[in-house]
Amino acid sequence: DTEVTQTPKHLVMGMTNKKSLKCEQHMGHRAMYWYKQKAKKPPELMFVYSYEKLSINESVPSRFSPECPNSSLLNLHLHALQPEDSALYLCASSQDYVSHGYTFGSGTRLTVV
Amino acid sequence: GNSVTQMEGPVTLSEEAFLTINCTYTATGYPSLFWYVQYPGEGLQLLLKATKADDKGSNKGFEATYRKETTSFHLEKGSVQVSDSAVYFCALSDQNTGNQFYFGTGTSLTVIP
Fold this sequence. Notes:
Largest sheet of chain B: 6 strands, mixed
Order of helices and strands of chain B: EEEEEEEEEEEE
Number of strands of chain B: 12
Strand content of chain B: over 45%
Shape of chain A: globular
Structural class of chain B: mainly beta
Largest sheet of chain A: 7 strands, mixed
Strand content of chain A: over 45%
Largest interface: A-B, 28 and 24 residues
Shape of chain B: globular
Helix content of chain A: under 10%
Radius of gyration of chain B: 14 Å
Structural class of chain A: mainly beta
Oligomer: heterodimer
Distance between the termini of chain A: 36 Å
Helix content of chain B: under 10%
Number of helices of chain A: 0
């Protein structure tokens, strides 16, 4: 299995809703990432988990809450989002050394209404 | 610090034309360099990579050579196809800065029949 699987592929949520994005990989990668990508822009790093511990939080608002239940799973919990949070949310994973590159999931297209 | 500079797009080419997308970088250490491709509505896919100076990465007819003397990693393809229409991102990783990628701004390529 050489994939990163993200669910759901599309999500529409109201500003008072609570939802979660899920990401799964079975490549034995020990680092996992959440990125946010707006249209026609490069991905922006949100969070990095290394060996299931949060190692980087790029000053992301608290309405985004990451969770890494085990080495294969990564969640992003969403609460009280704003319309400007609408974007493509990408999960990625990598081996210890990023010289091998990231493997990205296909993303969750989030729309906040 | 680390950064990647990519040529501005969008780029429009006729089928079978030669493609070059320029990418230059700055890095504090010895980075690995990557090209990622993003097709419409999808996540990022690793296209090719090079981990040390003078390495050439290649895949699907695309090539890029890691040039330390010019700090460049230009993407080339001899004959583009309509199916190559996508956004291309140049990126680097540097072990000195942990598990983090630095992306260029992306170059949109449209190939017309």
